[in-house]
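WARN retry 2 of 3 for item q-0093 after timeout on previous attempt; input resubmitted unchanged.
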Amino acid sequence: MTTLIKGGNGFVPSVPLRIAVRGRGVDAMALLLTERGTVRGDADVVFHGRPAHPTGTVRLARAQDGTEWLEVALPAIEEGVARVLVVGSTDRGALRDVPGLSVEAFAPDGTPVARYDVTDAAGETAMVLAELYRRAGGWKFRAVGQGWADGLAGLATDHGVDVADAAPAAAPAPWQAPSAPAPGSVPPPAPSAPAPAFVPAPAPAFAPAPTVPAPGFASPPAAPAAFAPPAPGPAPVPVPGSAPVPAPAQAAMPPHGAAGPGQGDAWAYGPVFAPYTVTGRDNDVITVEGLPPGPVVVQLEVPDAGYTGLYVLDHRNKEQDDLVSSTEDHYFGRVLTTVPAHGTLRLRLEAEGAWRAEVSPLASARRLTEQGVESRGPDVLLHTGGVADLTIDYRGDDNLIVTAFELAGHTDHAVLPDDEDLVNEIGARRETVPLTEGPLIVRFEMADGPWRARLKRVQPRTGPLFPGGAPASPWQAPAPDGREGWFPRR
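OK item q-0093 returned
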């Protein structure tokens, strides 16, 4: 965690953040500002009279211990918003009388990533405690500590709010409060009150490369965003002997509560961090520093492939693991590897022409469902339900190897247990295999052809998703509190 002094700033992960505003009797609010430093309208003011922005990207609630919580989904913030102000105010004297006034940001796994303790408040009744602002394609957190002696009315007016017309606008569509944490969650290491259970925006489901559907297959999901091959010349990634590329800011380690698309169960294994993407041409060595140790997903696309190979390098620069070995004309796949304890992932790539690689947290992988998942090539899927049967319809000509990692009872999130074979056959086929209760990682290790995977006969879970038990959530559903206006507490 970065503890900042007034005026200090630092990058934070570009993930949904939870921001705690602490101090007895302090109300929190957020202002979403444009590049001009003003709101676009009253809807850009999030307070207890209107506790959710119409887009759902900023939401406000009060915990049972009095802590104010702002949930800010950074990846989904509209492009027109350049800054998000975190504001604290009181109608019980002045802010200098508030003990323990502070603001702290948490990553989805509960890891604190930035904190500012206000030590020089004076006679003001409202203050911009901190701000989140865009910088270099990411987001930074700044400790501001700027107060307004004329209170919220002055602060709001200076940021384009018409205070005379500041009654709540039409309420946005109601949203559901975050569900209680899945069993096995670990309370965040906050110094005062624990961060609440939090369900961030669904992790992206990466779309497979375009394929021609095999007979009997539905059309595959939409292809990835248009791939723009880099211009010939030096690849924009490090080569041996050059400085490694730093990874983006990330939350450190174990369990987070990211829920998968359409899933009620949280996934709580492996580190969470902002995905890192790099592009280049031809053979190269990819080095990403500063990653938290643990399993990650590497997505690789080579549009005009001849032979494609991807290998993990160890500390002696020797090939440690063979991740990809393909002669597909258009290679696209997702493979599983583990970041070592020192936090640097090095991959040797053999490729012809332009390529794109992305390193993502395990929680970003798609979930297995009864509706089915389709792709082509290797992939990594997650199973969070009870005992089930897995049906695999494979239309390739070469090897199909599918393995599973059973995570129940495995508590070291920096490593993976041994995998077990589910399928190891050659040629097109349809297989149904039994799955134990989740959490499971199902890896399509080899699959040079289109396939579909679908769950059948899914049984209810009989145990917690992850062992250990979960604390009671302090989170309360935000609801308009009936205020006539948004500045003092009534």
